[in-house]
Design a protein that fits this description.
Length: 914
């Protein structure tokens, strides 16, 4: 058919050219003949399309043979009003060249041009694209519609663009003079949703009247659910859709949910409005309605949402959430909640009532606001049971330890200042610890003897450096029940410390040994004393803290030392033709020597207590009046110790089989690190050698992570389990060089896969973005027999998956004396945990988190969850089958955020329902 149109069009052009050169009269005869031929072809081509621009609507009637009502001058000008003036081409629509053909029809006074195949027209702000167009030149009216392909499917349906707004439709009449249009079955985007109309009229002000409209957020060709509107109008400038009576339809079934009127606006980024609640039921607190409230927009930088929860058994809660942000200055949020939680029926044994609160504040200052100054806040303060009743996830509910921090920092050219407030709490024992203020001031390292203008080599004394750091802390620890205790202020613990670091010149001996000497001086300030007094009534010595800021005390600490480090390499070469070429062993030994004199002097707070005990004996007890304070005082005795550390690293050099030259190798880590450390005090009167710490880690096959550490004690224990000044190998004999006091190890491994198999579609790999999972076969491949219902023919399915495994082991040795016999108690803990994720289909996803305690032979907290995407809706299921947090939940909701709160159903069982 397309070929026939092209031949006729080409023949007509040739005929016109030849006859025009010969005779004018013959040209007119030939044109008439060609027009007759074109009419015949056109009738056969557009039998299923409108051959003229006839319209049922009066606004789209056509004059004379086109059937226009002469009285509608507003749409088509009356040719009798004035002499027609030929307009310039700039005032006419600009059509693109059609892909197939362009045919002009001038029969019986007509002047209509037909365009076939990928044609577009532009006129001012209006642009229309379509597979077929018919243009009435005299009246400046265009008709556009798609065409049917060989399978009977519509292709190239019209798309209209007007000042950035795009509309898709089935067919359209558009008058370029009056800027009116008649549209059939149009689709336009309204934020997340689509507005579909059956019969529409576009007016010159760009407003659109709609009859039989539909609004939906489902992008399927046939929406799964929508709002049916009897009449609607899209306003011109605001593009707000106002509609009359409307009702909800789900799967083509009308529901008794009717709106007398409403609107679908172009939603701004922020708008005040009602927050839709969620409904459900808990066994312990009854039916509930949660998160009902209102959202307020206050200016350009601030908003507030106020919501509430109500339960049928009497519980209730209120929440205040605010957000604020100023670009290039700061941003943050503040969340407050207060709840009265009632569990169980009143007067029943399981009845409980508690009041809970929570404060969560987050603030961040932009670094560009005030360079050199920073302010951060992360506050999470709540009552002990707040997470239990007001948590939104298992992870939040099981969190026993929470902390907060508020920090202000200022950087100077010579140093920095930091002011902090810290908080931590434990919900298990209702204990709180608050530190405020915490002030730290530091002076950067500087070289007091370095010349500003140096001539010649640097002098050794010019390498001497100084730095200073001081910290003031005030900390208080208490339990929730002690909050009204009048003596709470005396629980404060405070102090101030000063540290001076003196850097001495570093040097190297024998090229490989690096030495770093150092000298340090420290000072602690105290504002109260911890005195010891003898209580005659109880006949024992008790501690007595003085009042806050009742005294001012100072202790001093100074020491010196030097450290040495180097590296030792060892290479083990193997057969050069073999797979394993060599193994390299690197040892990093380091030694440090330190010394400090006797600091157990009265100047450092050491004093004595003299008293007469119940037996009449005179007792003299020495102690430090600053012990137990924020900063510990210096210990008694001289110290001269040698610290040692040995680091080990193993790497293998392996031949690269992929290299064609046969000489390339790759490095493989066998042991990332294995460290051994300890120290020996030469001046200690006993137990000179410290415990030995061993730690190591490596990665096998690039995925299996192995970590471990161990503490060895070289000394033996007495009959009471206390360390004695006798080496364990001497007391125990044999090869028991040291005792293992504690050890731990962990293994972690993760792996994943595409879950892809070679299907029956003839492809080695599937393209999940474009190919379906399966299609249905209804005919037997051999006999051709029709099979009712058919069977599924899987093409090339893929199910991506991932698994992460972890194993932890810990050991600790304890000693106790039972009936005069020393017994060793070995405490073991061993757990394994796993997390897995499987995407079974494009829409279905499963995840599992579980663990097993090998010591208790019991499962740890296990959670199984699944999600299923139903195109417009999604289903999520979560289940904790056992343990303290046993619960389940089921939720189905619309995917579009505009309807996620409105169209949803949720059912759950909380972990405190038991």
């Amino acid at each position: 058919m397309k070929f026939l149109r092209s031949v006729i069009s080409f023949a007509s052009l040739v005929a016109i050219s030849l006859f025009n050169a010969a005779h004018a009269q013959s040209l007119r005869d030939s044109i008439a003949i060609v027009q007759d031929s074109v009419a015949m072809v056109q009738d056969s081509i557009v039998r299923d399309l409108p051959a003229t621009l006839d319209a049922d609507d009066d606004d789209f009637a056509y004059p004379d043979s086109l059937g226009i009502d002469p009285g509608l001058a507003e749409f088509v000008p009356d040719p009798l009003d004035s002499i027609p003036i030929v307009k310039s081409t700039l005032e006419r629509p600009a059509f693109s060249t059609a892909r197939d053909s362009v045919i002009e029809d001038m029969r019986d006074g007509r002047n209509i041009i037909y365009y076939y195949g990928d044609v577009s027209v532009t006129y001012g702000d209006i642009s229309i694209t379509s597979d077929y167009m018919a243009y009435d030149v005299d009246n400046n009216i265009v008709f556009a519609r798609g065409t049917k392909d060989y399978n009977g499917e519509w292709v190239g349906q019209p798309k209209m663009t007007n000042r950035g707004n795009e509309y898709t439709m089935e067919e359209v009449y558009y008058n370029f003079n009056s800027k009116k249009a008649k549209i059939k079955n149009m689709i336009t985007n309204q934020k997340e949703g689509e507005l579909r109309g059956e019969n529409l009229k576009m007016l010159p002000d760009e407003s659109i009247n709609i009859a039989g409209g539909v609004y939906t957020v489902c992008d399927a060709e046939h929406p799964h659910y929508y709002m049916k509107m009897t009449a609607a109008k899209i306003t011109g400038n605001s593009k707000k859709t106002v509609f009359g009576p409307a009702y909800v339809v789900v799967e083509d079934v009308p529901l008794p949910i009717v709106l007398p009127f409403g609107f679908v606006p172009e939603m701004p980024e922020r708008a005040s409005g009602i927050l839709i609640p969620t409904f459900g039921e808990e066994t312990s607190r009854g039916l509930y309605m949660r998160d009902l409230g209102y959202y307020f927009v206050i200016g350009d930088h601030f908003d507030v949402s106020l919501t509430g929860d109500v339960y049928s058994y009497g519980s209730w809660a209120t929440k205040l959430t605010t957000r604020y942000k100023k670009r290039y200055a700061f941003d943050g949020s503040l969340n407050l909640n207060y709840s009265v939680d009632i569990v169980g029926e009143r007067d029943s044994p399981d009845y409980k009532e508690s009041r809970n609160f929570g404060i969560n504040w987050s603030h961040s200052q932009d670094s560009k606001a005030r360079p050199g100054t920073s302010f951060r806040a992360s506050v999470n303060f709540s009552s002990p049971k707040n997470n239990t009743y007001n948590s939104t996830s298992i992870a939040e509910a099981v969190q026993n330890q929470t902390s907060s921090s508020i920090s202000y920092g200022k950087t100077f050219s010579f140093g920095s200042l930091s002011i902090n407030a810290l908080h931590s709490q434990n919900s298990r024992d209702s204990s709180y610890t608050i530190t405020f203020p915490n002030i730290t001031f530091s002076v950067n390292r500087f070289y007091p003897f370095k010349r500003k203008i140096r001539a010649g080599k640097e002098k050794i004394y010019e390498q001497i450096s100084l730095s200073y750091n001081t910290t003031l802390q005030n900390k208080i620890g208490f339990k929730a029940s002690e909050i009204h205790d009048p003596g709470l202020i005396n629980k404060m613990d405070n102090g101030m410390t000063h540290a001076f670091a003196i850097g001495l010149p570093q040097f190297t001996l024998l090229k490989y040994f690096n030495f770093s000497p150092s000298i340090s001086y420290g000072m602690n300030w105290y504002f109260r004393e911890n005195l010891k007094v003898y209580d005659p009534e109880s006949q024992r010595v008790v501690n007595q803290l003085t009042d806050q800021f009742s005294t001012f005390g100072i202790t001093q600490n100074y020491s010196g030392g030097i450290s040495m480090s180097t590296r030792i390499y060892g290479m083990f070469n193997f057969n050069p033709k073999g797979k394993l070429q060599a193994i390299r062993h690197m040892i990093t030994p380091s030694f440090s020597f330190s010394f400090h004199p006797e600091l157990g002097t009265p100047a450092n707070g050491y004093t004595t207590l003299e008293y007469v005990n119940a037996k009449g004996e005179k007792v003299v007890e020495e102690y430090n009046k600053y012990s137990g304070m924020m900063y510990s005082p210096p210990s008694k005795g001289k110290s001269m110790s040698l610290g040692f550390s040995f680091g080990n690293n193993l790497e293998a050099k392996i031949r690269d089989d992929k290299d064609s030259t046969g000489v390339a190798t790759t490095k493989v880590k066998l042991l990332d690190q294995l460290n051994l450390s300890g120290n020996y005090n030469f001046l200690a009167d006993s137990l000179n050698l410290s415990t030995i710490s061993i730690s190591g880690s490596t990665t096998v096959f690039g995925k299996l992570g192995i970590n471990g550490n161990m503490t060895l004690d070289p000394y033996a224990v007495d009959n009471q389990g206390k360390r004695i000044n006798t080496f364990n190998i001497v007391k125990e004999k044999g090869f028991r060089i040291a005792r293992i006091t504690n050890a731990s190890a962990s293994l972690s491994y993760s792996f994943n896969g595409d879950g892809r198999i070679n299907g029956n579609d003839g492809k080695e790999e599937a393209d999940p973005s474009s190919s379906p999972d399966y299609y249905r076969v209804y005919y037997h491949p051999v006999t051709g027999e029709y099979i009712p219902g058919g069977w599924l023919y899987y093409l090339n399915p893929s199910s991506p998956w991932s698994v992460s495994l972890n194993a932890n082991f810990a050991y600790q040795a304890q000693y106790k004396n039972v009936n005069g016999v020393l017994q060793k108690v070995n405490n073991f803990t061993s757990t394994i945990s796993a997390s897995a994720n499987l995407k079974l289909t494009k829409a279905m996803n499963f995840s599992l988190n579980t663990g097993f305690d090998l010591t208790k032979l019991a499962l740890t907290t296990t959670q199984l969850s699944a999600t299923y995407d139903l195109h417009c809706f999604n289903i999520s299921v979560s289940w904790v089958p056992q343990g303290t947090w046993e619960s389940w939940s089921f939720r189905i909701a619309a995917n579009a955020s505009a309807l996620a709160d409105l169209l949803q159903f949720k059912k759950a069982s909380s972990y405190w329902d038991k």
